[in-house]
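Build the 3D complex.
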Amino acid sequence: MAASRDKFGRPIVVVTGMGIVTSLGAGKKDNWAKLTAGESGIRTITRFPIDGLKTTMAGTIDFVTVEPSSSTALTEKLADMATEEAVAQSGIGGKGDFPGPLFLAVAPVEVEWPQRIEVGRAVGKTDITIDDVLRISGGGRFAQYHHRFMFGSVAGYLAETYGTKGSPISLSTACASGATAIQLGVEAIRRGETDAALCVATDGSVNLEALVRFSLLSALSTQNDTPQAASKPFSKNRDGFVMAEGAGALVLESYEAATARGAQILGVLAGCGELTDSFHRTRSSPDGKPIIGCVRNVLADAGMTPEQIDYINAHGTATPENDKMEYLSISAVFGEHTSKIPVSSNKSMVGHTISAAGAVEAIFSLLTLEHQRIPPTINYEIPDPAILFDVVPNKARDARVTAVMSNSFGFGGQNASLVLTREPA
Amino acid sequence: MAEPKPPNSPPEEVWITGIGIATSLGEGLDAHWDALNARRVNVDEARFAPYIVHPWAPIKLDAQIPKKGDQRQMEAWQRIGTYAAGLALDSAGVKGNQEILGRMDMIIAAGGGERDVPVDLAILNGYVKGNSSPVFLNERLMNDLRPTLFLAQLSNLLAGNIAIVHGVSGSSRTFMGEETASIDAARIAMARIASGQSDIALIGAAHNGERSDLLILYEFGDFNLKDKFAPVWARTENSGFALGSAGAFLVIESRAHAEARGAKPYARLTNVVSDRAQRKQAGEVTKSLEGLWSRLGRLEDNGALITGATGVDPVTSEEKAFLSQHPGYAVRATGTMFGHTLETQFPLGLALAALSISRGKLFPPNDPTGLEVEMSGPPTQIVVAGAGHWRGEGMALVEAIK
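Done.
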């Protein structure tokens, strides 16, 4: 049996359960089949009217419905589905009795338009003022909207349903949130606070206002005519990311606890790294230093060299800036080795699941290790000559993969990277 | 990034070396100390009548946020927080120290930013007047939302602004989830330092109480204090909280790190614990607080306790039941002086605990019901407690460094 501690003397952290929902489908099996077939989950939006919008497509999850409908309720349902799959696979604890804390990456919550309009209509007159709205808001008729739109509501539901221990954490580091949730779980196990952690990341927030907000920042692709082809990471004609929904859940355990109970080990969380960019609210530092530092930090935390990484699961949003900066930063760290490492973007198929992306892509990275097959970057017809990655264009590729780096870089400067391996070092 | 510690080494001691507070009572430690000793309360009963709020005291933002462009990019809650974070960095003596700021970890607790209320109201009026064609909302949002407003609303952009304005850039994590978000931020930042995963961290939160959109959210649950201000413990007949405006940040670091750079501590952060009662039965919050109390560590008799009690029932009554099991403790409710500042209430309590310990005196009671009593000697231990208005409970133990 391998040692239960890594070369730094810390408990080794392994994955024993995974669950996933994306616009490609529910569950690992369906998602992996479609992802490696190069299918896209992006489609024209039917959830709300798209008239007058600059972007009219997204990776919405239309096969799941919730009543009463809200982004927060869908976010919760997606998290529930992913968590159920992960906990069942791991076989940990008893029903509703997960033996560790919950770390949940979730989008910020607020009252949404259908509810706002319902309250406005309840005033019962025209020319309503904010005082009118305030006066009819109390008395209990809208009490459920207070409960629904608490930031802690999704984590609270999961904590009660799965019986996680202690105060559940809800967190946001923008597009890096999913990776941060995993990192918090890894750190808690390494500190010896717990033998297990439930790390979940979820995002069901393709609603009108969220789409408009990203659109007004000119962050979204407007290639609406062929939605499946809109997300073009690393291509010369990329023009922005595609909003998408999804959830990923991982059961993390110490290697010692997992082997003691005879659990199947799906992979190892060998390292986590982060470094903040203080340059700008939406743009990364032009010298790439924060991303370079983040990538160096994850390698140092894993105790690995660039040559030991066989595949990079890129952040690869398909915004003009991100993909360029990602190439510059990765090549600064990996040097001549850069061109030898396959680098693909799941976002070409599932879109950008924002708060969920870090966990969704960590799961795809673990499935890459399990199946020894690298998912492609689709829609790669016109290479960007400034980005010399081997992007695994358009078709999945069989390969020997022992270690994967998964990168997440967010608005607001939050960068986080993970290194995942098949076996403990 | 801190060097990995050898396994099974003893935990690092965690010191509070920086405090930054900017609230409805003013800015900085001296102003707060004077206001607390004068039992000052700053409420506005008129602007949102019948609802009561504690407005942020006017200050000159340039002192901590020198670029007007940065100020314009933020909404009030971010300005309050970025300002208070700057005070904390100044207080710790690390402002502008690129070597330390570049590896300082940050865990911020945040809600969301203010909506553009006139835009929302115009849209609502369109609906009630029957202008609601299927594309009405699309047109209004595309045309009326300010593009940069999103960045002033995103929860993680308070941390983003602190990184941009002050250069704190080791790591940046934002916890959400109302009152407990900041309790868990303190708990995890402390655990990381104690275990050697981090050397120095900035923790805290900010809240702007002068927001009609928040009043509406809390009015859904009948949580707002109405008509007349009363201290927290005197709200039995008229339960509720008055939204408060405050930024509260602390710099915490390992004792070894503080000593190596010659930093003077205000107090030690000995422990932070949290839990989440489901609150389906009466008495669950009392039980949860008892459980946390028993996990804090060795407590002396006749100590002090600073609570973020909201004044909302049933949770505040349950907290009173817990307090009644610990007579002899000098209790102070920050909700009376500062209002309820959600995520900010707990770091505000930590800040006032560390301040009191460093001044060798607990600030006086402000409570006509007699629950809060005078404390004669200098406090050596202060428990900081918080029970969320809806969910979540937590406690910390702040101690004098002897």
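Chain A touches chain B through 91 residues (CB under 8 Å).
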